[in-house]
Design goal:
By secondary structure, the protein is mostly helical. The protein is built from 21 helices and 3 strands.
Length: 496
């Protein structure tokens, strides 16, 4: 006889399958879709979004969830699963079917406009679509409700429990501690990174990235890598997790570390429990925790001296004419050079947070109505001059560089910095829990680290908030000091 909880789980599995189809369309949208298919893709996305919304807000399903909430026979994990879904239903019920359809159509149209605008370096092509998205986000905030700031309602969708007030405290520490440290590094004798700026054949870069992803533990039997204009990862199911990267034959960092970053995301998705697919227990905790996994593999591992010692021979084999003349220490310093740059995804791990800070401040201004969309290119350029002392030469390299706003993802960017700070904290404790971890990474042995992440973070899914997971793993909530300690120790070595 099927229990009510089994009925609950089966229903959510079906909902997740619908969501996975939408994910597959989203992947295709940015990888292989022909440009003339934009119209039908918008209809497909709208149909799936509506179907998903209707399934999730089905009155009979809500009745089942309410009955399970009072079921005393549920295990602790089952009870949390039910409570989380009940909260999700209450949020989703606030949105009408018309609202969901309209959102899907606006986003589908916006992505095409953004891509066209970026390609042609013409912000005006994207301006109207972005205005619609900002208005839609404001409408979303009012529908969802908030206590202090409309931005809180957007944050909750990506990082449950995070608020604008908390973010302001975090970014205040970035300004107070990280910015002066960053400026002090710029005053030092600069690292020579010329070895990263020769000509690197695209296919050889690709082959190298595949080898490194395999070393990390990325299962190509349950995933693949492709090219896209903006690197991303997407998980339809733990057995189907895909990543993309992009290549610049004049900059080795463009492809390799993007692949490591997205590979970190993918390892998290592949580590979710298949048996709980569709349940909070089988879903990632938050974007902050997700980003902690990508930044940990990209930076704490992928830009470490241990990783360089393990893999420098692969770079030498692929590009002997360049790296045959460079030793491993020079290579390590080159990939960790700190310098102002235009592109967030290519930024060093210190200045990266200034890029995020700029986006956070712009999004707040948009939600507060203190800036209009038409003025964003000018505001963007002013802030890049203020924080990074950089003149932005084009909108393609400036306000149009990120895909996120075309997806309607206001509130997403802060999770990048939060994730980096979680990553430093998790990695510090992984080093305590795994004997001689740096030495193992130096030998190319990362399986033990992956297993530690899977048992401490991945298997918990969304049973707990980011802060609760952090407390369980490290004994305390998010502590920015871990990142500062990591940065000071590492870059004091790089810059002597």
């Amino acid at each position: 006889m099927t229990t009510k909880y089994e009925e609950f789980q089966k229903y959510l599995n079906e909902v997740a399958v619908i969501g996975s189809i939408g994910g597959l369309l989203a992947w295709d949208n940015e990888v292989y879709k022909p440009y003339k298919a934009e119209g039908i893709r918008a209809e497909q996305n709208s149909f799936l979004s509506t179907l998903l919304h209707e399934r999730f807000t089905n009155p009979d399903f809500e009745k089942l969830v309410k009955e399970l909430i009072t079921d005393s026979l549920l295990t602790k994990e089952q009870k949390i699963n039910v409570e989380k879904i009940h909260k999700d239903i209450l949020r989703q019920k606030k949105f009408s079917t018309e609202f969901v359809q309209r959102q899907s159509m606006i986003v589908s149209e916006a992505f095409g406009k953004w891509h066209q605008a970026k390609t042609q370096n013409d912000f005006s092509l994207f301006q109207d679509s972005l205005s619609k998205i900002v208005d839609f986000c404001k409408e979303t905030a009012e529908i969802v409700g908030y206590k202090e700031h409309p931005y809180d309602a957007l944050l909750d969708a990506y990082e449950p429990g995070m608020t604008t007030a908390k973010l302001k405290v975090i970014f205040a520490k970035v300004k107070e501690e990280l910015v002066p440290f960053y400026n002090s590094l710029l005053q030092k004798k600069q690292v020579d990174d010329s070895c990263l700026k020769h000509h690197y054949e695209k296919q050889k870069q690709w082959d190298l990235s595949i080898e490194l992803l395999k070393q990390m533990g990325y299962d190509f039997g349950a995933g693949r890598q492709d090219y896209s204009s903006h690197p991303f990862s997407i998980g339809m199911h733990p057995t189907d997790v895909r990543i993309t990267t992009r290549a610049d034959e004049k900059n080795l960092s463009e492809l390799i570390w993007s692949a490591l970053h997205e590979g970190g995301h993918a390892l998290y998705e592949q580590g979710l429990l298949v048996a709980h697919f569709g349940l909070p227990q089988g879903t990632s905790a938050s974007l902050g925790i997700h980003e902690s996994q990508s930044r940990l593999w990209e930076n704490n591992v992928g830009r470490s001296l241990s990783f360089c010692k393990a893999n420098f021979h692969l770079f030498q084999k692929a590009f002997p004419e360049v790296f045959g003349k460079v030793d491993v220490t020079e290579f390590y310093k080159a990939i960790n050079k700190v310098s102002p740059g235009l592109i967030r995804t290519n930024a060093d791990e210190i200045s990266y947070h200034l890029h995020v800070l700029i986006r956070f401040e712009i999004e707040l201004a948009l939600m507060e109505g203190t800036v209009e969309v038409k003025d964003l290119p000018e505001l963007w350029n002013v802030k890049y001059k203020e924080y990074l002392a950089i003149d932005v030469p084009s909108n393609t390299l400036g306000v149009l560089q990120d895909v996120h706003w075309s997806h309607g993802s206001l509130g997403y960017f802060p999770t990048y910095s939060i994730g980096s700070f979680y990553a430093a904290q998790f990695f510090a404790h992984a080093q305590k829990g795994i004997e001689n971890l740096p030495s193992k990474i130096e030998k190319g042995e990362t399986a033990e680290l992956l297993n530690w992440l899977r048992s401490n973070i991945h298997v918990k899914g969304r049973l707990y908030t980011s802060e609760e997971i952090c407390e369980q793993v490290t004994g305390e909530g998010l502590n920015f000091q871990y990142f500062m300690n990591y940065a000071k120790n590492k870059y004091s070595e790089v810059y002597r």
